[in-house]
Amino acid sequence: MAELQLRDIRKSFGAFEVIKGVSMDIRAGEFMVFVGPSGCGKSTLLRLIAGLEDITSGTLAFDGETVNHVVPSKRGIAMVFQSYALYPHMTVFENMSFGMQLAGKDKEQCRKRVEAAAEMLQLTPYLERLPRQLSGGQRQRVAIGRAIVRDPKVFLFDEPLSNLDAALRVATRIEIARLHRSMHKTTMIYVTHDQVEAMTLADRICVLRDGLVEQIGTPLELYERPNSLFVAGFIGSPKMNFLSAAFAAPYNAHRIGIRAEHLEIVEQGGEWSGTVVHSEMLGSDSYVYLDVGADEPVIVREGGTSRHQPGQTLRISPTPGQVHRFDAGGRAIGRVEMRGAA
Ligand SMILES: Nc1ncnc2c1ncn2[C@@H]1O[C@H](COP(=O)(O)OP(=O)(O)OP(=O)(O)O)[C@@H](O)[C@H]1O
Hints:
Layout: E1 4-13, E2 16-26, E3 31-35, H1 42-50, E4 57-62, E5 65-66, E6 77-80, H2 92-102, H3 107-120, H4 136-148, E7 154-158, H5 166-182, E8 187-191, H6 195-201, E9 204-209, E10 212-217, H7 219-224, H8 229-234, E11 241-244, E12 255-258, E13 263-266, E14 272-281, E15 285-291, E16 298-303, E17 313-318, E18 323-326, E19 332-336
Parallel strand pairs: 3-8, 3-9, 6-7, 7-8
Antiparallel strand pairs: 1-2, 1-4, 4-5, 9-10, 11-12, 12-18, 13-17, 14-15, 14-17, 15-16, 18-19
Helix pairs in contact: 2-3, 2-4, 4-5
Subcellular location: Cell inner membrane
Membrane topology: Peripheral membrane protein
Protein name: Sugar ABC transporter ATP-binding protein
């Protein structure tokens, strides 16, 4: 378990600055998730923490000690990548124990650690198999097991589940959450594109944008109190509905944002009305897409099966207190109880 301090970290590749001054504290035992659009620098930041890339300027400290010039093998980290990078000619047991044997660990100690990790990851029946005799999810668990046996202070994950199909992704995600709990809360830093992974695994999420931190907070903080249009649009699925001009003016905002679950279809009155252009049924919920005359259809969540057909006119109202307001620069200016109240 280690605490990390990042102070004004910058990274350039030649003249191209990718990380532009990132500062944050990652608490001991915390599960921190980095999200952000493609190319914003998530993997680069993780690789700087791992020591796989040199930091151009700024300070990186583990438990108060600067590690900028400490080689990766001496940082007490273990990293799991999207590609499992297992040795194809070695069994699961050998793949997991190889690193320890290289480090000169006692054979018996290696065996015990591998068996304990295999137990934790439900890999015990597969220890004598070769990687090609395993499913993708099992291979990724071996890669995670190989990292566990090193008993790292900090675990780094770079999109570890993105090669897996949907069902395996869910199963392995639950496995990782369980792992975090059972490893006495080893500090974990996890890069992902996946909303659900970020929301369900993270103690805190860091949203990166163009090499800078846009917002750091618990999943619920980011979901309920995004500090910018960018975070509001990035966190949550379906995306928050954004409305501008005549829709936002009564709220004294440049733009307003309302989540699909905070719009209610009403029989009478209603703040806006629109035509149903599409509806999606997910089983437990439905999403109704309404053309209210804005740039894009507004998405409204309905519990159960939608009763609404394309072409039908519906009236909708936002849930009081759930209208997010944004200024012309895209900064949040808080939610309001009702229109005209700001
Ligand atoms: N070794 C390198 N040399 C030059 N440019 C690089 C290098 N590594 C990364 N970059 C650039 O740095 C930027 C950030 O890359 P990075 O892989 O960190 O982004 P990311 O947020 O992880 O993206 P993705 O979600 O697509 O994986 C990109 O523009 C990338 O092309």
